[in-house]
Write a structure and sequence with these properties.
globular; 5-stranded mixed beta sheet; alpha/beta; 17% helix; 15 strands; Pectate Lyase C-like; Alpha-Beta Plaits; cell cycle
Length: 220
C-alpha cells in the first residue's frame, strides 16, 4: 500500500513571547509593533507564549485572538504546570509546550560548512542545517540566511542573518559590512534600529552573552 503521509520529527525556529504581567492588550501591541518593523520576518510567524510569569487569570481565547490580530500565529503555551489552566489553553486551541515534559533531544551532528559564492538576492532564503554558513558575497535586503551554527559574510549584509537557529548560544555572526535588517542568535534578535551607529557599515562580530546580543568591531 502506498503511503499517504508520514509523521517525522523536525526542527523549527519559534519566537517566544513572555507574558510578564498578564496584560494581553499590551503584549499584543508589542507584537504588532514588531510585525510592522520587520514584516518579512514576523508577519504570520509562529509564536509560543510563555506564561510562567503571568498572573493566575488568563483569558486564553482573548490571547489567541489578540496574537492573531497582531499579525502572528499563536501555536502553543509554555511555562504552564497547572492542569486546569493547561486544559483551558487547549480548549482555546493552544498546544502545551512545557520543556520539562519533553525528552531531551540528542545533540545534532555538525556537518561540513555550507559555502555560498553567489549573491543572496531579495526574497531568497538559505538554511545551513547543523553546520556553519559562509557567504562569500552580498546579502540583499529582503533576503534571509539561517544557520544552526555560525555565519560568516564576506560582503555587505543588508538582509536578515539568523545564527544558532537550533538554539546554539555559542553561535556567532561575522560580518564584513553590517547594514542588516535583523541579526539573531539563538532566538535573541536586534532589528536595524537597535544597531549602534558606530557599528553600521563596519566589520563586526555579533555574539551572545547572558541572553543579550553583543556587537564589537572585528580586529583586522
Amino acid at each position: 500500500m502506498a503511503k499517504t503521509a508520514e509523521l517525522k520529527g523536525g526542527s523549527f525556529t519559534l519566537s517566544a513571547l513572555h507574558l510578564v504581567d498578564g496584560d494581553i492588550t499590551k503584549a499584543a501591541d508589542f507584537l504588532k509593533q514588531k510585525v510592522e518593523q520587520a514584516p518579512n520576518f514576523f508577519a504570520a510567524a509562529p509564536v509560543v507564549i510563555d506564561i510562567s510569569q503571568a498572573d493566575s487569570s488568563i483569558d486564553f481565547a482573548l490571547l489567541q485572538q489578540s496574537v492573531k490580530h497582531a499579525g502572528m500565529i499563536p501555536v502553543g503555551i509554555s511555562g504552564c504546570k497547572d492542569v486546569d489552566k493547561q486544559q483551558e489553553a487547549k480548549d482555546a486551541g493552544f498546544a502545551i509546550m512545557n520543556a520539562a515534559r519533553q525528552a531531551k533531544a540528542a545533540e545534532p551532528v555538525m556537518q561540513p560548512t555550507k559555502i555560498i559564492r553567489t549573491p543572496v538576492r531579495s526574497g531568497q532564503q538559505i538554511y545551513a542545517k547543523n553546520c556553519d554558513l559562509v557567504v562569500m558575497n552580498h546579502v540583499s535586503a529582503g533576503a534571509e540566511i539561517i544557520a544552526d551554527g555560525c555565519i560568516h559574510i564576506y560582503g555587505t549584509l543588508r538582509g536578515r542573518a539568523i545564527a544558532g537557529a537550533n538554539g546554539q548560544q555559542n553561535a556567532t555572526i561575522f560580518c564584513q559590512n553590517l547594514q542588516s535588517e535583523l541579526v539573531s542568535i539563538a532566538g535573541n534578535y536586534w532589528l536595524s534600529d537597535k544597531i549602534q551607529d558606530e557599528f553600521w557599515g563596519k566589520n563586526v562580530v555579533v555574539s551572545l552573552a547572558e541572553n543579550n546580543l553583543n556587537i564589537e568591531h572585528m580586529a583586522l
